[in-house]
TrEMBL record:
UniProt lineage: Bacteria, Pseudomonadati, Pseudomonadota, Gammaproteobacteria, Candidatus Kentrum
Family: Belongs to the ABC transporter superfamily.
Stretches assigned to the ABC transporter domain: 34-274
Cited Pfam families: ABC_tran
UniProt KW keywords: ATP-binding, Nucleotide-binding, Transport
The keyword Membrane appears for this protein: no
Entry keyword annotation includes ATP-binding: yes
GO terms, molecular function: ATP binding; ATP hydrolysis activity
Designated name of the protein: NitT/TauT family transport system ATP-binding protein
Cross-referenced PANTHER family: ALIPHATIC SULFONATES IMPORT ATP-BINDING PROTEIN SSUB, TAURINE IMPORT ATP-BINDING PROTEIN-RELATED
InterPro entries listed in its UniProt record: AAA+_ATPase (IPR003593), ABC_transporter-like_ATP-bd (IPR003439), ABC_transporter-like_CS (IPR017871), ABC_transporter_ATP-bind (IPR050166), P-loop_NTPase (IPR027417)
Length: 295
């Protein structure tokens, strides 16, 4: 088997073409890439015995949820545990469905491109029988990219996340942080319009977390994509995002939004020590406390 990475040259963020993803309703927009309107999600609780016999129960996760994601922005989604953040990611990713309301995935405005979506989960979903390079190649294979260019592209993305020397390593040979970097490379390789990240750094140690945060910021600033990141970490949300959406306890709705006015491009080593960063974190915590206290 040829080593395509030996022939890689040029940009760390290679270009490519893509096939249309199936089962996505597309509309033209100049601003919002995702529009969620009056969304409702319930989960059955099974049956329980009452004085009148057995009856079923339901848990309403969110009801009447309205939320927009604008093209090209980095949004952090915060909220108490169990309020439906990960459920919303699953629904956007097509792994679950709403019980009411609607989600509109809007056509990108640049060059007539089709809608493309990728996900980075908290636990990596790498295929253990494939090398790092083959894992990154996989979504490109689905997109119909021929073997040599997709090999070059996979290698370029591994270099972009600092794993150029680990292309032939298998997931079992990589640390957790390195596996998440491979997952990130695989998600970004098809250049998605929307990247969903469900607490992607929650299981990492502090140093590994900071390093991969830097990679995410750097690579996102090089590509034209929208990111929705679920996190419990207020500091992480402020450091990375353009806008923070805070959900209430379930049944969840949007408690408040906060635009993060830190400059781009961002140097996280500087941001984490900046007075404005700490002021925003304090402001957000105060708003969160007031929001919960008002319930």
């Amino acid at each position: 088997m040829p080593d395509y990475c030996l022939s890689s040259r040029g940009s760390n963020v290679p270009g490519t073409h893509f096939d249309t993803l199936p089962n996505i309703s597309l509309m033209t927009t100049t601003q919002n890439i995702i529009e969620i309107r009056n969304a409702v999600k319930r989960f059955p609780l099974g049956t329980r015995r009452t004085t009148n016999g057995r009856t079923g129960g339901e848990l309403t996760v969110f009801h009447g949820l309205d939320l927009d994601l604008r093209a090209g922005e980095f949004v952090a989604l915060l909220g108490p545990s169990g309020c439906g953040k990960s459920t919303l990611v699953n629904i956007l990713a097509g792994q679950d469905e709403l019980d009411g309301g609607e989600i509109r995935k809007n056509r990108p405005t640049r060059g007539g491109e089709e809608f493309r979506l990728a996900v980075v989960w908290q636990q990596d979903s790498l295929m253990p029988w494939k090398s790092a390079r083959k894992n990154v190649e996989f979504p490109l294979t689905i997109s119909g990219i021929p073997p040599r260019p997709r090999g070059d592209m996979a290698c370029a993305w591994l270099r972009a996340v600092g794993l150029g020397d680990f292309q032939d390593y298998y997931p079992s040979q990589l640390s957790q942080g390195m596996r998440q970097r491979v997952s990130l490379a695989a998600a970004l390789a098809p250049k998605p319009n929307l990247l969903l990240m469900d607490e992607p750094f929650g299981a990492l140690d502090a140093y590994s977390k900071l390093q991969i945060e830097k990679e995410v910021v750097r690579l996102w600033e090089e590509i034209d994509a929208t990111i929705l990141m679920v996190t419990h970490d207020v500091q992480e949300a402020v450091a990375l995002s353009d806008r923070i959406i805070m959900l209430t306890e379930r049944p969840a709705h949007v408690a408040f939004e906060r635009v993060i006015d830190l400059p781009r491009p961002r140097n996280l080593d500087e941001i984490y020590g900046a007075p404005r960063f700490h002021a925003l974190v304090s402001e957000l915590w105060n708003a969160l406390t007031r929001s919960r206290g008002s319930r």
